[in-house]
Predict the structure.
Amino acid sequence: MQWVMLVLVVALSTPVLSHRAHAQDADAAFPQFCEEWMEKLVAREERNVSHIQWEQSGEGVSGSYVGYTRQHTCLTKNGTNSTPVGKISYQEIIYEKRGATTEEAELAPAQAVKTCKITEIFRYSDGKWIY
């Protein structure tokens, strides 16, 4: 009878250890995933700048694009059913550029006109972070 109870205890504790190891793997992988995600935002911002739609008005030319702060936070925790969840938070910024001509507007420094806090949530599955 004791032997059966011992087997039962081991059988019940194995998934707990597996979940714990899964969560540790996720925690260890998230900082790199987070930095890679932020690099994707840098590339997206560069693309946004290169695709500004310029609008002509009586005051000259203006155009806007979306940019992102480099400051961010990366956190992990267990979600439902012990699925690791990661959160990346940063600021999204709408920038505007103005000038008398398109060429002048392109060279003008961008002015932030609106900011918005963004929180993106990811889950860890099959040994990788999913987006």
